[in-house]
Amino acid sequence: MNNRVVSFILALGLTSAAVQASETFSVIPDSAQALSIVGGRYANLSDASAVRVAPANILKLEKSELLINTAMWHSDIRFEQNGGQNVRINRPWVFPASMYFVQPLLHGRLSFGLGVSTPYGLAAYYPRGMGGGLRYALPYEANLLTVDITPALAVKITDDLGFAVGLDILYADLTMKQFYSWNNIIPGSAEGDIKIHGQGWGLGAYAGINWTIAKRHRIAVIGRLPVKVNLSGDFKASNIPPALIGTFSESSSFKSDMTFPASISVGYGFDVTDRFTVGFDFKWAQNSSHDDLPLLIGNNQALLGGSTSTVFGWRNSLDFGTGMSYQLNEHWALRGGYLYSENSQPQNSYTPLIPGNDRHVFSLGVGWRGKTRGVDLTYSCVYYPARVISGAASNPPNQYDGTYKHQWQVLAVSFTQRF
Known about the structure:
Elements (H helix, E strand, L loop, with lengths): L1 H17 L13 H5 L13 H4 L11 E17 L4 E3 L4 E2 L2 E10 L3 E8 L3 E5 L8 H4 L3 E18 L2 E20 L11 E23 L2 E8 L2 E11 L13 E10 L2 E9 L4 E10 L6 E3 L14 E3 L5 E11 L4 E10 L17 E11 L3 E17 L12 E17 L1
Antiparallel strand pairs: 1-2, 1-3, 1-4, 1-21, 4-5, 5-7, 6-7, 7-8, 8-9, 9-10, 9-11, 10-13, 11-12, 13-14, 14-17, 15-16, 17-18, 18-19, 19-20, 20-21
């Protein structure tokens, strides 16, 4: 037992160092099994990533289990500006990772789980050679890294009903970099850079049930509270014209906060045969919690035009889909899934930093399970229909208006070790 705990903690540190954020605040499932049945996972997920996704499901695991997930994401994200230039995110590859561990405490009656994952994030890197008004309207780098530590405890209430509670211990690190035109204040001045960096912690909670309502039929319900993270750090500006030194400073404090959304998820699972299982999921997410991003930078506040926040004004959203799996034999399983995720971003506050639209996720996967080890592999296409934006707020005006095209190709791999 001691060796397992030590190994887990060491791997935990490696995972935390390796994780990277993805393209929107809400990221698709991280384990290969969860991704393969993406629209039908809540009632059917049976790997250790259930710790965060559907915590009552960890009661299904009969042995201690360590799950390590990694993936290769490749993006094609383009912005065709109305009457202007075309820009494309220039770092298309992302390599996220996560880890989960489940320890049964009382066989089939009580289980403990712990996970480390990156459920939210963004990574937008636009060309530093952008010209025109877009050069000073759009940050050339915006990166949000989150790491969520999720301990959970599940208990079997009756033979048909499992209940679990867990914590979201969430760390967030936000960085934004942008060119700044000092020429707009003092003509003839060279441009500079502005940078904000902040980090902080937040605490939330979640709970779930898995209820066998009839033979072969299950319902899972998961509720998650919002998590507010208070960010603090610094603001830096370069190439301040000599005439403005004293009015502005090269560095000042930075404060902000982000609230990650509450959600309610419901899943239905049905074993059509002993080999064939289907699932159907529904999720409501309170994305309106992303109402704005405060940007408080002390004596340098005037550099943001007097603004104290970036308005998001996002709407609540719905997800729904299906997933299925077929057990070829005792070792091999085939899986597939589809998920529709509703767009939350209104046109008037749209930003190229978080380019999005209604999201369609198509997945195919295969899994192998041995006596003590398992490997899962999933390919997923994340498709966003092209979106035409008009009237988005920007400074200078109209810089964000145009057509956005956005796709991801994902290859996920998971390794399971049972003890």
